[in-house]
Amino acid sequence: MRTFKTANKRLLNAAQIKAILERFAREMTKAYGNLDQIVFIGIRTRGPYVAKRLAEFIKKRHGKEIPVGEMDITLYRDDLNALLPGGTIDHTRIPFDIANKIVVLFDDVLNTGRTVRAAVDHLIDLGRPRMIHLAVMIDRGGRELPIAANYVGKKISLAASGNVQVRLKEIDKTDEVVFQ
Q1: I want to staple 113 with a disulfide (CB 3.0 to 4.6 A). Which of 74, 135, 145, 167 is the partner?
Q2: Can the peptide bond before residue 29 be classed as cis, meaning omega within 30 degrees of 0?
Q3: Residue 58's closest CA among 38, 88, 83, 80?
């Protein structure tokens, strides 16, 4: 019996990812005005890199420094017992106060909405933001919870068995989005 590996199909290349981040920067600076009350928090693993890149775009173009944090939602997942039967992990690094701030959460792919729900639960435990918005590179549909992103790089329709991967040079040595 032979198994055939399905080839990855490129959805976005490096230039398209950069263009999405530039669009996010334009949309956010227009929506939030002076940016003084904005903080970015990336959901691990790739969300922090997207948030950092966007903060760099905004700093270069507008001279505003946006605080960037990193969130590990592992302890807030609804399938935690299956993932960590005997241990705990928490790599959350948010070195600023989120109370009364506009928090923009960043994730690479939005699918069921469970990761975002866990991230919001975690944020509420850290303080009471004035507002929470969501930015994702890919919205692949398939929601199980009533969650929608405020900023979407690209929306696709993919079967539940399909796989989409955002690859970033900081981790994967290349910038691209591929799917099977």
Answers
A1: 145
A2: no
A3: 38
* Terminal CA-CA length for the chain: 21
Q: In this structure, what is the dihedral angle of CA atoms 163, 166, 148, 90, given to the nearest 10 degrees? A: 100
Low-confidence ranges of the chain (pLDDT < 70): 1-6, 78-90
- Asked if residue 1 is part of any domain, the answer here is no
Neighbours of 137 (CB within 10 A): 27
Q: In this structure, are residues 42 and 91 in contact, taking their beta carbons and an 8 Å threshold?
A: no
Q: Are 38 and 104 in contact (CB under 8 A)?
A: yes
Domain extent, residue 60, equals: 9-179
pLDDT at 8: 86
Res 6: pLDDT:
57
Q: Is 46 helix (H, G, I), strand (E, B) or coil?
A: coil
Q: Tell me which DSSP letter residue 93 carries.
A: B
Distance CA 170, CA 164 (A): 18
Question: What number of other Cβ atoms are within 10 A of residue 19's Cβ?
Answer: 13
Question: What CATH number does residue 67 fall under?
Answer: 3.40.50.2020
What pLDDT score was predicted for residue 116? Answer: 96
The β-bridge relationship of strands 151-155 and 164-167 is unpaired
